[in-house]
Amino acid sequence: MTRLELHGYRFSVYTRIVRMVLHEKGLEYAYREVDPFAETPDPALHPFGRVPSLRHGDAVLYETAAITRYLDAAFPEPVLMPPAPLAQARMMQVISIVDSYGYWPLVRQVFSHGVFRPLEGEVADAKELEAGLEAAKPVLQALDDIASEGLVLDPRRFTLACAHLAPMLDYFTRATEGAEMMGYYPQLLTWLYVTRERACFRDTLPDLGWPKFTP
Ligand SMILES: N[C@@H](CCC(=O)N[C@@H](CS)C(=O)NCC(=O)O)C(=O)O
């Protein structure tokens, strides 16, 4: 089989999304660690200096949603896209919500300033944490509405939307305030509980002895 090579960073939620999909597909891959905050990733792999990127033979891909769509199309089993057109659209909607409105407050504000920076001995800003918690509310509400509708974020069916959301909610809920807030979004919380038990989630947990999710 043509070799797959993932370039990523161990704390990166976007890298973990790709790793979860590779895991679900049962694919072997080489892994190269690149810390994009400390070094510039190879511009031939990512012209915007981020991770992840994926090499498959001669092809190079970056942008996580494109990578996961590619993996799902190129390696069809198990299928990670729902068959119905509306469910497919919802899946893309979740991915877009997560990228456009979720990543910054959930990860870069709440997780970074509430968990990561304090643990790493870096300066944390309580105002960033507060702003992130506020900005997270409409995101969680929109995702809870989608989970309640049941076309995607269905605990019984893992899709690319699940892979895109799980690493970010995992980080968000490692902050005490984030875990408490999740109680207001019961359908999303149910989905998270079930998804946390999947092998692709457990086997890609960043292993740092960080506090575990205990809402
Ligand atoms: N739109 C990109 C986002 C990737 C991204 O933001 N990755 C983060 C790590 S989780 C990164 O490389 N950050 C480095 C930086 O912001 O300089 C994707 O979908 O892959």
Automatic annotation (TrEMBL):
InterPro entries named in the record: Glutathione-S-Trfase_C-like, Glutathione-S-Trfase_C_sf, Glutathione_S-Trfase, Glutathione_S-Trfase_N, GST_Omega/HSP26, Thioredoxin-like_sf
The record ties this protein, via Gene3D superfamilies, to: 1.20.1050.10, Glutaredoxin
Tell me the ranges covered by the GST N-terminal domain, including all copies: 2-79
What Pfam families does the record point to?
A: GST_N_3 (PF13417)
Q: Which SUPFAM superfamilies match?
A: GST C-terminal domain-like (SSF47616), Thioredoxin-like (SSF52833)
Which residues belong to any copy of the GST C-terminal domain? 84-215
Q: Which CDD domains match?
A: GST_C_family
Q: What is the recorded name of this protein? A: Glutathione S-transferase family protein
Species of origin reads Roseovarius phycicola
